[in-house]
């Protein structure tokens, strides 16, 4: 009786050192790309998240003399007035006066930044709690500083 024998063949895989190095570099670049994408598309904290975290901690609200107070911003050769309307404890509205077409054309983010600040003020208890987006960071900071200057006039002594 004959037995059936299977011959196992051994396969050898030959890797060249260049292939190993290229593979390691490629995997490193893929990992770096994933890290960069994660950092770029990380979602910033929203105003509602900031407001909810602020309600958990007890803060003292400033006391204002109700009315409308102003401060000025100089943009190029134009001077704008930032009008801040307050009640006893909060900011009700922020508006720009002396805003003409040339200023709006030269500084297109001014109006949208002001609208965003007015919207965000409904959800936060203080001007210091506002978060600004990266797109309008400098314009928003300019407006926030002008609002703070006007609020300094409104604070009860």
Automatic annotation (TrEMBL):
Keywords: Membrane, Transmembrane, Transmembrane helix. The chain crosses the membrane at residues 20-41. This is FMN-binding protein. It comes from Coprococcus ammoniilyticus.
């Amino acid at each position: 009786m004959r037995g059936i024998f299977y011959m196992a063949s051994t396969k050898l895989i030959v890797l060249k050192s260049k292939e190993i190095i290229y593979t390691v570099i490629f995997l490193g670049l893929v990992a770096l790309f994933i890290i960069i994408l994660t950092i770029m598309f990380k979602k910033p904290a929203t105003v509602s998240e900031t407001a909810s975290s602020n309600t958990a901690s007890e803060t003292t609200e400033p006391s204002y003399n109700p009315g409308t107070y102003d401060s000025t911003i100089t943009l190029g050769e134009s001077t704008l007035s930032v009008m801040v309307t307050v009640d006893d404890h909060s900011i009700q509205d922020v508006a720009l006066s002396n805003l003409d077409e040339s200023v709006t054309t030269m500084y297109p983010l001014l109006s949208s930044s002001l609208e965003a600040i007015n919207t965000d003020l409904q959800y936060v208890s203080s001007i210091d709690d506002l978060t600004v987006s990266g797109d309008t960071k400098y314009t928003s900071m300019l407006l926030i500083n002008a609002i703070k200057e006007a609020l300094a006039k409104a604070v009860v002594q």
